[in-house]
Amino acid sequence: MVRPVIAGNWKMNKTVAEAIDFASRLRNALITPPEPEVIIAPPFTALHAVAELLRGSPISLAAQNLHEAEKGAFTGEISGEMIREAGCEYVIIGHSERRTLFGEGDERISRKLRAALSADLRPIFCIGESLREREEGQMQNVVERQLKEGLNNLTAGDISRSLVAYEPVWAIGTGRTATPAQAEEVHQLIRDWIAGRYGNEQAAEMAILYGGSVTPKNIADLMRQPNINGALVGGASLDVGSFIQLLGY
Ligand code: 13P
Fold first, then answer.
1. 193 — phi, psi (to 5°)?
2. Ligand 1 atom 2: the closest Cα is on which residue?
């Protein structure tokens, strides 16, 4: 049985003060640890302060990106070691906004996955097709290509530390959630691909999250699908009340 995971991706939202306010309210609300693993991904600037505040709580921290090099002349970038030291256990890699707005391709994303793992971070590896790709019948090809290229060179041990998030681009920030059946179809495909490459055991243990317009209203139906192990939530994770509601499905 995979423990469910609910992760909030704040994207470029919240100052340090706002992040601290959210995290302390969340911590106070979760005196009894909830069933799912709870992760929040504040912007880089708030990570350290939020990590201090969440120390000893059941809430884990993720960064939203990292640079693939260990260190060096990469103005404006942040390394895995820095993220780990700031208090993160997870890092989101390959988000569609990174792919489309910042030109990250599969090869770069693969290097980022390896950098995360060698910095002892657990990657939340995002994949998903665009509306056009879906309409052209390319969904399966795109998802399998992203898996193959992204997970290139990863060992079974690496895979057991990784999570996959299926985020169809057409569902992100649009209010147009994939139906539970649409999402389940792709999650099954992802699990089958992992099983084919790494074996049934690795596949059965992998947390595969769905992302794209998840709200307190639609989460329960999504979470009832056998291959959906959690959610990566953008907009609805920004309000602490709504995020807490999501944790109870
Ligand atoms: P929304 O929940 O705002 O659609 O964003 C999803 C997402 O991109 C999470 O990473």
1. -65, -45
2. 234
